[in-house]
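URGENT: need a sanity check before tomorrow's submission.

F., can you look over the GAF domain-containing protein record below? I want to be sure the sequence and structure line up before it goes out.
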Amino acid sequence: MAEELILDTTLTKAEKYRQLLPQIEALTTGEPDLTANLANTAAALRQAFGFFWVGFYLVKGEELVLGPFQGPIACTRIRHGKGVCGASWAQATTLLVPDVEQFPGHIACSSESKSEIVVPILKNGQVVAVLDVDSDQLNDFDSADQHALEQLMQLAATWF
Ligand code: SME
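Structure tokens as predicted:
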């Protein structure tokens, strides 16, 4: 296992993801513990991109429950369909929110969060968790984030 991430700051965002994803794969390959893999993934994403908040919510019954994350403390439970995370779970699809104040029912864990992307993790067609990434800048996520994070969440699905 690599002890340090290689992060070239001169790269474009898409290139950074291309550099990072194989490193996350190497870091998690052979490790059977879900918490360990989710925790290192959250840390690697925050370290590479400096996101305000990055973490996982796990499906437990009728709710999402806070899992491994990096950043300020956050809401612990989110009901099905509620907020961006609950909507992504209900729709089993990625949600890109350029301005969280314009998203009906957005759950404000922090007033500093301005834009957000939520990517579901699907196992056998069922959402088992979501990745939530928040930025303190408006309109901070685009199709490059969506493409790379969806690819990463396909890897994450193998940990469940
Ligand atoms: N904003 C999210 C809640 C989670 S926090 O941002 C960490 C939502 O609306 O689902």
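My own read: The domain at 13-157 is CATH 3.30.450.40 (Beta-Lactamase). The helical segments are 13-28, 34-49, 83-91, 143-157. If you see anything odd, call me.
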